[in-house]
Every structure is written in C-alpha cells, then in structure tokens.
C-alpha cells in the first residue's frame, strides 16, 4: 500500500481498541520471568558452548602477536578464535570500527579474541591466559584538545539562511555561550547477547537487536554468506536505546566462534565490556548565539557543535532542532567533526536532539533572562508554523504553543519566582525551570502478514521488535481494531527475520511505521475476507467477530484460513511537510543550600505527538525518557582517560543512572492530535520525545533555585563551587 496522500477517515478512526489505555500483552511474560531473552535460550539448540570475548587493552595500534597456547590447553576449552584463524571476514557499512580487531586495533576493548568452552567459567578462566603483545600507537582522546582540528562533517551538515553575522552583530539583545555534554552510555538493562548455530552454511542467530533486517544484512556482509542463509530472531529485548540498532561483537563472534569450533556458541558481553566495546553517545561542545530585538523576536540564531569519532565515523547531530524549532530570518548551523580514537560514537536515544536541546534550551533560558521575559513567553513569541530554513515547507502539525500553555497551566508555572535563589524551603533552595521538546517523526516502510484461524484468532507476524516499548501491544491493538475482534483474539509474533520486513525500532519511527504496515496487511486481508463471504469490501464493517455489509453478515470464522501480506510504502509527504513531535517540559528542583545536593521534586511533560495509540505505554515511554533525561542532566558521564583512551567508569556502580529514589512524581499530558500526513494510523512517536529538552528544564530549574549557571553537563554539585 502506497501512502502518498493524507489519510482520510478509515477503520482505525473508530478507536474502539486503538487509543485506549491498554496493559501490555507481553506483560505477564516479562513479570514472570518467562519472556525468552537471547542469552537464556538454552532450549533452542543442543550442545551449546560458551564464548568469552577478550578486549584490546590498547586504544590504537597493532597486535604484534597473540599467544593462545595456554588458553587452548585450559580445561573445557573448545577453541580460541582470533583474527589469525577466524577465516575470511567481510566488512559492514553499519560499523565504523570492525567487530574483531587484527592486526589493527581501533579502540580500547575492541574484541581481539573469543574463547569457546563448555562453560562460561571455563571460557572466562582461559581468556585470562591469552597473552597479546601490542605495538601501541599514539591516539587522540580529548575532544576539547582536538576542537581546532575538527572539520566540516560532510555535505549537508551545515545550514545557513539570510545573513547571520551582521544580524547578530546588530541585534540589541545578544547571547553567545558555550555548553558541553559528555560521552554517555546507553546502559540498557540487558547486555548484548547472542547464540549462533550453523547448519552447513546456514546461520541461525538468537540475539538482542532492534533492527532485524539490518542485522541480517550485516551478518551476511561480515560472514560473507548470502542473506538467505541468515536467520535472526530477537523476540524480546531488555532495552536498546540505539546500542542494538546494529549487531555487535557478541553476534559476530558467536557466529565466527561457532563456525570455527563446530559447536553452537552463546555469548554475552559482560557489563564492563559494554561500555568500551560497543557504541556510546559522543560528547559535544556547542556554541549558541541568539540575537533579537527588545521584543524578544529572534533575528539571528546560530548553533555550532563539535564532536568526535573514529576515522570514517559521523558527527553528533546536535544542531538538528535548531534548524526547526524557532523562527528567525538569519540563521546558521554547523557540525564539526574531530577524529578521536575512543570507542565508536553512534546513536543513543534521540541522537542529535537530546544533547542539542540540552544546550539550546539552556541558551533560551539565558536569553529570556537577558530580555527580562518569561521563558515560556519567549518560546511562544518565536513559534513558527513553517520550516524556518524553508518557508515553503509547512509543519504537518505543530502545537508547541499548546504544549507550553497547557504544561505551564497544569504545572503552576505562574507561581515561579523569576528571581533566582529567592525561594527557600528550610535548608533547600527551590526553583522551577522549563524547556521546549522537539524530535523529528521519521517514517520507514514496514510490512506484515495477518491471518485468521478457525477460532477467529487473528495472528500478526512482522519482524518488528519490542525493545521494551510496547510494540506487541500496539500492533495487537491495530489488528484487533482492523479485524473487529477483541485484543485477546489477536496473537502477535515479532522479531524474526522469516517474517515480513518491518520498520524495526529506531528513531521513534517504530510505533507509527510498524502499525501502519499492520494496517496495510489488514486492509488486504479485509478485502479477501469480504470477497470470500460475498460482501461488498468497500462498505464491510468488521465488528465483534462479525463482518457485515448491505444488510448481510457472517462470522469472521467463516474466513478461517485466509492470510494476507502487505507493506506500507511511504511516499513524499515527509518531504512536503516537516513531520515532528513537540512538547514542553516543566521541572521543580530543590538544592541543598549548604551541600549543593540536588533533588528533583516534580516533573511534567505536555506532548503533541499525533494520535496516541496506547496512552498507557506512551506515558511509560515518556516518563522513561524523562528519567533518562534526568540522568543526563545530573549524573551520566563516561569519564575519558585521556592518556590511554578509554572510558574509566565501565559499570553501573560508576556510570550512574537514576534510580527510583532520584525520580519524583512525573506527569504526562498528551494533547489531542491526529496527523493524517504521518500514516493511516495518524500517529507519530513518543519513544524519544520525552528525553528531548528535559535535561535543560532541570538545568534551568537549578539556576532558578540557586542563581548558579552550570553549562557543563552533568550538573554535579562540585561544579557549584
Ligand atoms: Mo534509536 S537511538 O534510533 O534506537
């Protein structure tokens, strides 16, 4: 099904199942510990051996020699694989650094060997006996030191409209500030894990992955086997946040280990390995300049961002939102990329906007203060309904103003004292802050297959993943709505490359795109059902397990055995319109006047994100993302060892993420919205919106509480002195 013009009224609009707060259908499996995660799949193939990955202890250089003799002789060891005996391997365009080093080493903890043994403990013990001699080369590990050497981050990375330089120079109100965000780790609950088994030259991989089709593609490229020979399954994930968009060393080395030893191999990255072996969100240095007249209308806005990555890597797109969020005739954005020999930088929840808004929305707070205007009003004054870089391109929908007004009202923003450090509650200094939220709403083609059995059970199969987001449930709701059956008459099968190729989970495109694919398949199935039952397909109504049209009706079970597959193919509406999600974050904090200890007291987000398919799981997505944003504001930082080039704090004891005690009451308001240009579902996505801007709202609240402006995230209490 082509989707190239705005959706009219369709069966989803009945909203009998869609749009209703619905418990997750996979909830019981998860809460009873019976959802099968990749590393737990003892049952799927016999004779599994355990792999243990050895990481490089240098950041850059060459492997001079690897002595594996003692490891091979160690009890229980089945084999040891290094670049010398791995056989011929390919490269994948999904990866900047290779998943198995040798002889070249590109980053610390890059895999140099996998030990395969009868037990995990034997593999781990043998791994300690491997002796690697390195020739270490000098690397660059310090973004600030490399800032001057950074170059333009590729074609189309920069943008310019009007004459920024002169408009900024002549603006009566000026802001010119620098902000920094640190390297961050996804820190998902479930580390990367895989089981690989070969049958001749056919590979089966049970893994934890967000994008099944990309995984098939990468495994085919890396192992030099045809795509048809790769079967990937990832029905449950314990989080991804972008770290599992692409297969990592666990998947590749499980497959290579299994190929070399002839045993199915099971591998998990240990928690400490995840931080340096996989990807992270790169640190940024951002300069923001805003100029305006005294009325607060922006006349010039400039945003430059510096980040680093390995040779061949990409920038952190921290200027994304600045291209779209506020009006202003004269504007520029620029991304500068330095070469750093740290582990690979890549996508983490809302890449670009998440760190970009941490800077931009703090700048807007400082700008509001210079103007003597309320921070909410400054944002409203600078609203725009067209792309500020291209006035011919409207937003499909944009209710930022509604989010800000509704959020402010619900939060009690009018009680804020604009004078910093003026509200006391015993030993606590209390403050309020806010920020806008913005995140693009991309779409991806997505396919599904739907069938009906003799009990009237509708089964949906698609290679879509549920990374903890609720995909199972919204896909089930979509099929239930479309086929006119209750949700408990729908079976959803996900995460298997033998199913039709879906959008996968990334960039907050999953909900809208994958359900639209299910919609397309259901439309095809409805046609078949109507034809079989002798009913007019155009007017057929599917309800309560019955199909009726023109005064006739028949039970859906009469269509048992029918099956249909289709795909939603998105046309150019996403080029005609800017499709994006919006929100307003409001936060109250308290800061201990003597110790600087910070406590978040209240958080509220008002979101405009198209039709909300399941208000319950959508709320969970937003509060989870707000929690992640609180981590970004207050605690998360990968500390770089600038001498040796690795992240020092590589476990959850030292890489701090928020716990329940850090997070207060959170409230989420969804504005009524349906976007007919987004898909037949009229939905967008909320998986990433919630993290966007919230860090700055917290920072701004801390400033309001204390009068101290910390522009280097995370805002830890040592920075108050
Ligand atoms: Mo997302 S960072 O595209 O999983």
Description:
The protein has 721 residues and is an alpha+beta fold. Among the domains are: 2-35 and 443-574, Aldehyde oxidase/xanthine dehydrogenase, molybdopterin binding domain (Aldehyde Oxidoreductase, domain 4, 2-Layer Sandwich), CATH 3.30.365.10; 374-441 and 579-720, 2-Layer Sandwich (Aldehyde Oxidoreductase, domain 4). It has 16 helices and 33 strands. It has a seven-stranded mixed sheet, sandwiched between helices. Strands 8, 9, 10, 15, 16 and 17 form a six-stranded mixed sheet that branches. Strand 20 (424-425) and strand 21 (428-440) form a beta hairpin. Helix 15 crosses helix 16. The mean pLDDT is 97. The structure holds dioxothiomolybdenum(VI) ion. Residues 210, 240-242, 245, 347-349, 351, 506-507 line the site of dioxothiomolybdenum(VI) ion (MOS).
Structural class: alpha+beta
Mean pLDDT equals: 97
Low-confidence stretches: none
Strand order, largest beta sheet? 4-6-2-14-11-12-13
Q: What is the alpha-carbon Rg in Å?
A: 26 Å
Architecture of one domain, according to CATH? 2-Layer Sandwich
Say which CATH homologous superfamily of one domain is assigned: Aldehyde oxidase/xanthine dehydrogenase, molybdopterin binding domain
- Binned, the helix content reads 10-25%
Total number of helices = 16
Oligomer: single chain
Bound molecules: dioxothiomolybdenum(VI) ion
Euclidean distance between termini CA atoms: 60 Å
- Total count of strands: 33
């Amino acid at each position: 099904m082509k989707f190239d013009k705005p959706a009219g009224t369709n069966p989803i609009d009945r909203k009998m199942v869609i749009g209703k707060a619905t418990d997750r259908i996979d909830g019981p499996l998860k809460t009873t510990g019976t959802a099968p995660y990749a590393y737990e799949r003892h049952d799927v193939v016999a004779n599994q051996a355990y792999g243990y990955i050895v990481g490089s202890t240098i950041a850059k250089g060459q492997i001079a020699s690897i002595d594996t003799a003692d490891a091979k002789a160690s009890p229980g060891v089945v084999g040891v694989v290094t670049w010398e005996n791995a056989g011929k391997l390919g490269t994948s365009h999904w990866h900047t650094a290779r998943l198995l080093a040798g002889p070249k080493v590109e980053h610390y903890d890059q895999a140099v060997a996998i030990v395969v043994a009868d037990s995990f403990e034997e593999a781990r013990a043998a791994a300690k006996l491997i002796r690697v001699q390195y020739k270490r080369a000098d690397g660059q590990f310090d973004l600030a030191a490399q800032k001057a050497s950074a170059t333009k981050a590729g074609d189309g990375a920069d943008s310019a409209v009007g004459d920024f330089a002169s408009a900024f120079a002549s603006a009566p109100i000026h802001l010119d500030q620098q902000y920094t965000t640190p390297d961050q780790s996804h820190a998902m609950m479930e580390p990367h894990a895989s089981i690989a088994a070969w049958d001749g030259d056919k590979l089966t991989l049970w893994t934890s992955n967000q994008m099944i089709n990309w995984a098939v593609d990468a495994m085919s490229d890396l192992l030099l086997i045809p795509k048809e020979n790769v079967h990937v399954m990832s029905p449950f994930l314990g989080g991804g946040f972008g770290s599992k968009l692409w297969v990592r060393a666990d998947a590749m080395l499980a497959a290579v280990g299994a190929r070399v030893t002839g045993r199915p191999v099971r591998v998990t990255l240990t928690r400490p390995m995840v931080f340096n072996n996989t990807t992270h969100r790169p640190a940024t240095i951002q300069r923001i300049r805003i100029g305006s007249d005294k009325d607060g209308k922006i006349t010039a806005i400039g945003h430059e961002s510096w980040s680093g990555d390995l040779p061949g890597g990409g920038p952190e797109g921290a200027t994304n939102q600045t291209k779209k969020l506020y009006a202003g005739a004269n504007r520029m954005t620029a991304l500068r990329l330095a070469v750093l020999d740290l582990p690979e930088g890549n996508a983490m929840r809302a890449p670009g906007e998440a760190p970009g808004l941490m800077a931009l929305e703090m700048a807007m707070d400082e700008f509001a203060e210079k103007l003597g205007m309320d921070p909410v009003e400054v944002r409203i004054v600078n609203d725009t309904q067209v792309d500020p870089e291209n006035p011919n391109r409207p937003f499909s929908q944009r209710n930022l103003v509604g989010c800000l007004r509704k959020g402010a009202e619900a939060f009690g923003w009018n009680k804020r004292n604009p004078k910093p450090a003026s509200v006391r509650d015993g030993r606590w200094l209390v403050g309020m802050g806010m920020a806008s939220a913005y995140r693009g709403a991309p779409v991806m083609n997505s396919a599904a297959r739907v069938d009906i059995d003799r009990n009237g059970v509708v089964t949906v199969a698609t290679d879509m993943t549920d990374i903890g987001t609720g995909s199972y449930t919204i896909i089930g709701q979509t099929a239930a709505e479309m086929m006119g059956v209750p949700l408990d008459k729908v079976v959803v099968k996900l995460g298997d490359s033998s199913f039709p190729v879906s959008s996968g989970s990334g960039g907050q495109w999953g909900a809208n795109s994958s359900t639209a694919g299910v919609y397309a398949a259901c439309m095809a199935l409805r046609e078949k059902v109507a034809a079989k039952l002798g009913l007019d397909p155009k007017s057929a109504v599917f309800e309560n397990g019955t199909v009726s049209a023109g005064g006739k009706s028949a039970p859906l079970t009469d269509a048992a055995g029918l099956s249909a597959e289709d795909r939603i193919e998105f046309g150019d509406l996403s080029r005609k319109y800017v499709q994006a999600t919006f929100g307003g974050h409001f936060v109250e904090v308290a800061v201990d006047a003597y110790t600087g200890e910070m406590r978040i007291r209240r958080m509220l987000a008002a979101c405009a994100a198209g039709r909300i398919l399941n208000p319950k799981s959508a709320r969970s997505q937003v509060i989870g993302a707000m929690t992640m944003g609180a981590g970004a504001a207050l605690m998360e930082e990968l500390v770089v060892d600038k001498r040796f080039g690795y992240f020092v704090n590589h476990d959850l004891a030292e890489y701090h993420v928020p716990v329940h005690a850090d997070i207060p009451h959170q409230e989420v308001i969804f504005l009524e919205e349906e976007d007919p240009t987004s898909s037949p579902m009229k939905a967008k996505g909320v998986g990433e919106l919630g993290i966007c801007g919230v860090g700055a709202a917290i920072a701004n609240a801390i400033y309001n509480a204390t009068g101290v402006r910390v522009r280097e995230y995370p805002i830890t209490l040592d920075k108050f002195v």
